[in-house]
Model the fold of this input.
Amino acid sequence: MPNNCFFDIEAKGKPKDLKRFLKHFIYDNGVERKTYLARTFIDGYTNSKEYIIDKIGEIEKEEVFISGWCAWSCWSCWIEGYPNKKECITMGDLCKKYVIEINAKSEEGLMGFEEELAVSKDGYLTYEEIDFVEWKCKKCGVIQNFPKGHREDDSINEICGECGENKFERVEK
Ligand SMILES: [Zn+2]
Done:
């Protein structure tokens, strides 16, 4: 069973290009185009048509917010790993094709990492992987990994898997 990596993409481009871009994701009915983003799923929609109807307001404003999931990581599905030049296109090439600019974030809870990825309009890609931060339960002392998010203090909104307490302190490295 692959781990699911959940992503949020902010994509900017011309409405007609955004619509084309959205046809390269995988919906409940499966793959729609000869080339598509490998193992990149948007759940709850039969096909891209349905999704585009739902997102038309954002599309017309030339900025669409896409939430979905990849198997393993965005890196392996969009950059290196599954893209094979035949069926599976890289995110960089897809953005270049339709002149789309994206900013994406992902979170994988099992292995414990986050990704940040951006593609500029000319296809220039930046990528960063960030490991989850370690937190120590103030009650039982068990160390657990949670996403860094924007939390820099010890007031994270998580429950200890061991004892159910919700107070943690960051483990300094
Ligand atoms: Zn605890």
Q: What stands out?
A: The mean pLDDT is 89.
